[in-house]
């Protein structure tokens, strides 16, 4: 399934003849970047247990996998979280895929700690996932494949609580690598479902390249799901204007037909007990014509 991110040519034992490079491994994970040596020079090999969630912008690797109803917030806010049940940007996108995506392999682009990749595998799809962050990929591998059986969750600004990983290890149908969303290491038409999580705002000038790459990896009739934020965590509100009018036009220009979407889906993140952030997301499903 993998190909050389430099040339698009085939790989044999992680070696690209056309690209004249052998791609290295980081703790058993292939580093499929155009310049893998540059990354490894700043990220020496380590174990999943040594990877840091804070380097991924997260307080811990567990709570992103939990539904809002299990966050345990106090008083009225806790009641609101309980009323959400399983509702989250990932659950909405996965629901769109269950409804609209054809059978076949799935890809989680910018996988973070693997929340959508886990949904993809448990839905019965052969799944690939990648992120440019080595810490995110090592944590995702450790959590999903069972090599990281427990971790810590912040309970206050200074307190930590050790917890077990609250789901069973995935033993098949999952491949993880370190890669760049603008130069993904996959041949054209490889996937029935590609998910692009909340990363568009972080891409800067690479947004166009990433959307083109995602469209190219879809087979005809395949589905792209993606989420975009209404604004920064400190300014988002239910009355904020959706940011993606230009995004919808870009998708149509790439030959992707928007067939489903949902506004103002709350994304709740927990920093520690009584420390919560809420962003409102727009979830889009687009089919390749």
SS element count, helices: 7
What's the CATH topology name?
Answer: Rossmann fold
Structural class: alpha/beta
Mean pLDDT metric: 89
Tally the structural domains: 1
Order of helices and strands: EEEEHHHEHEHEEEEHEHEE
- The tally of strands reads 13
Determine the strand fraction and express it as a percent band: 25-35%
Strand-helix topology:
Blueprint: E1 15-16, E2 21-22, E3 25-26, E4 29-32, H1 36-42, H2 75-84, H3 89-100, E5 106-109, H4 115-122, E6 127-131, H5 134-145, E7 150-154, E8 160-164, E9 174-179, E10 191-196, H6 207-217, E11 218-229, H7 245-253, E12 256-272, E13 275-288
What features would you describe in this structure?
- This protein is α/β, with parallel strands linked by helices and 289 residues long.
- The chain has one domain: Rossmann fold, CATH 3.40.50.
- It contains seven helices and 13 strands.
- A nine-stranded mixed beta sheet has the order 3-4-9-6-5-10-11-13-12. It has a two-stranded antiparallel ribbon with strand order 1-2.
- Residues 232-237 have low confidence and may be disordered.
């Amino acid at each position: 399934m993998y190909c050389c991110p430099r040339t698009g040519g085939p790989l044999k034992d992680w070696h690209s003849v056309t690209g004249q490079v052998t791609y290295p491994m980081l703790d058993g994970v292939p580093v499929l970047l155009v310049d893998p040596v540059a990354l490894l020079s700043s990220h020496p090999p380590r174990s999943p247990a040594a990877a840091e969630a804070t380097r991924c912008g997260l307080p811990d690797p567990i709570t992103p996998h939990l539904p809002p109803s299990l966050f345990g917030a106090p008083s009225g806010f806790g009641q609101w979280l309980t009323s959400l049940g399983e509702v989250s940007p990932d659950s909405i996108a996965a629901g769109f895929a269950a409804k609209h995506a054809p059978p076949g392999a799935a890809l989680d682009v910018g996988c973070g700690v693997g929340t959508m990749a886990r949904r993809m595998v448990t839905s019965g799809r052969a799944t690939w996932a990648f992120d440019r962050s080595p810490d995110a990929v090592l944590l995702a591998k450790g959590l999903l494949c069972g090599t990281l059986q427990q971790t810590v969750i912040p309970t206050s600004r200074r307190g930590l609580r050790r917890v077990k990983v609250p789901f069973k290890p995935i033993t098949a149908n999952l491949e993880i690598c370190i890669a760049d969303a603008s130069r993904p290491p996959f041949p054209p038409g490889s996937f029935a479902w590609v998910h692009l999580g909340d990363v568009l705002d972080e891409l800067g000038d690479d947004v166009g390249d990433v959307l083109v790459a995602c469209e190219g990896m879809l087979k005809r009739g395949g589905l792209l799901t993606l989420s975009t934020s209404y604004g920064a965590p400190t300014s988002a509100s239910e009355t904020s204007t959706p940011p993606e009018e230009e995004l919808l036009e870009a998708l149509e220009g790439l030959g992707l037909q928007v067939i489903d979407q949902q506004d103002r889906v709350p994304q709740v993140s927990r920093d520690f007990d009584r420390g919560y952030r809420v962003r409102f997301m727009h979830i889009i499903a687009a089919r390749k014509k």
